Amino acid sequence: MLKNESFYRFVATFATQNNQTMTQNLDITAIRNDFPILSRTVYEHPLIYFDNAATTQKPRCVVEAIEKVYYEQNANIHRGVHYLSQRATEAHENARNSVKAFINATSSNEIVFTRGTTEAINLLATTFGETFCDRDDEIIISTMEHHANIVPWQMLRDRKGIKLKIIPINEKGELNMSAFEALLSEKTKLVAVTHISNVLGTINPIQEIIDKAHRHNIPVLIDGAQAVAHTSVDVQALDVDFYVFSGHKMYGPNGIGVLYGKENWLDRLPPYHGGGEMIAHVSFEKTIFADLPFKFEAGTPDYVGSVALEAAIHYLKKIGIEKIAAWENDLLHYATNKMVNIQNMHIYGNADHKSSVISFLVNDIHPFDMGTLLDKLGIAVRTGHHCAMPLMTDLGIDGTVRASFAFYNTHEEIDQFIAAIERIVKMF
Amino acid sequence: MTINEKQDQIIEIFNEFTDWMDKYAYIIELGNQLPPIDPKSKINQNLIEGCQSRVWLDAKYENGKIHFIGESDAVIVKGIVSLLIDVLSDRTPDEILNADLYFIDKIGLKEHLSPTRANGLLAMIKQIKLYALALKSTKQQ
Q1: Which of A79, A345, B4, B40 has the largest count of CB atoms under 10 Å?
Q2: Neighbour count for residue B36 (Cβ, 10 Å)
Q3: Taking the model in full, what pTM does it have?
């Protein structure tokens, strides 16, 4: 049952960012029909899903891809001579090629499937860390990192006695780039920063970061978890050394993610996990490891997730990532302009380049209270520290309420969200 | 009034509300009415850290009964703390240990006691029972 169909039946019109007033069309009704969950109700209200930075909803084609693998071609890959195994292997490797094309990598050898962004960073913290980092070496991260890009490096610090250097942020929630430059030294072994902040929405100047680090011959890892679904990424143009992201934040399935690494880097790293798949030859005396990318993929890989991730990539390409970015940018500005009119509204993160994530507090209403009441009105937001406790400490708060938009969200949903906040504020 | 009579009374009050928002408006009212905890009690030792919100709980044992005071940084949690104290404070350790807390479920607030809610309330109830258990065993020695 589709709620409020006529309500959403409109064509989204917006201007592109380059000041050329050009009208593009996104058929939001058709898009919303691709996501069955969006037509459900929560506590008798139509669901308004504004928790997209935590995970995005899945279009029908992604779920159907999973079903298709299980119903039509399920077999363990790479080792089978039989028909199904070969079809499954082909599908998995085609998916790798689609990921390669999606981020414009040079070769599919540079695409390692992981369980997600977190595993990809842990893989690098272990393999890169063990190979290239010694006592007193330094790794640069930033104040706005997610715990996934802090804790693995702290664990490396505790193992090897390295130091973590932290890029500070300014009052708008942007990286302090001169402070970053000052941190680069001959001791720096890696710069690991997020592309887009999951709390502040800040889109970091990663090209500038990469260029500056490279001038000192320092490799760069970019955490793209919040970015790939919202902006196009070209790893060759960026000349980035490592880029990591998760499937479930880009309309794909849970449990699969990607580590992109330049081949000459990945070649020099040791394997992460040992087991099947990642070997060329094993005797009890010695094991010869497989070539890239299989060296990093021990055990049976998620050949179902990879195929479903490919379906998500094709879906995003069909809609058009530029159109998605423009629509989400429009939603961001529409919501921000309305929110600032609410008395005692404080928005955290006002970067000049910002993604469709809004962290906020109103009066002294606790995020838990705001989130609980929004939920009762059918609105899903995230509350708390957002796995970025050091950032919260830097901002001097315990947590925020965070609304994050995807391209299936609408102005009408934002209007209801604003009305809900206004209603809730009056309850305190 | 016994623990169960108190619970039934609360259920009756909540049965009046047909809308979630009215129910929560009442919980917020209870939260706002809960007197702030003495700063002497608002110490780390009495802190129950949830992922989303924090609860402070302190207990005093007088004339065979346990008196609880509590607070939270979130008003809704504070409102539920107030209900729990209303039901469980000034009871004997045995009464607390034998209490079956059915009212939370009946008034539709069960979600707040789920381990995933991470608001400290589940840990608070456990802590209340632990106080009762500890006092009961001290008394028996």
Answers
A1: A345
A2: 10
A3: 0.92
